[in-house]
Amino acid sequence: MSKTYAIHGAGLGLRRGRLMEELEQSPPKQVDFYEVAPENWLIMGGKLGKRFARFTEQYPFVCHGLSLSIGSPAPLDTDFVKQVKSFLDQHQIRCYSEHLSYCSDQGYLYDLMPIPFTEEAVNYVAKRIIQVQDILERPLAIENVSYYAAPCQQMSEIDFINAVLSQADCQLLLDVNNIYVNSINHNYDPKDYLLALPKQRIAYAHIAGHYHEAQDLRIDTHGADVIDPVWELLDLAYQHFGVFPTLLERDFNIPPLAELLKEVDQIQYKQHTWTQQHDYCIA
Question: What is the pTM of this model?
Answer without folding.
Answer: 0.94
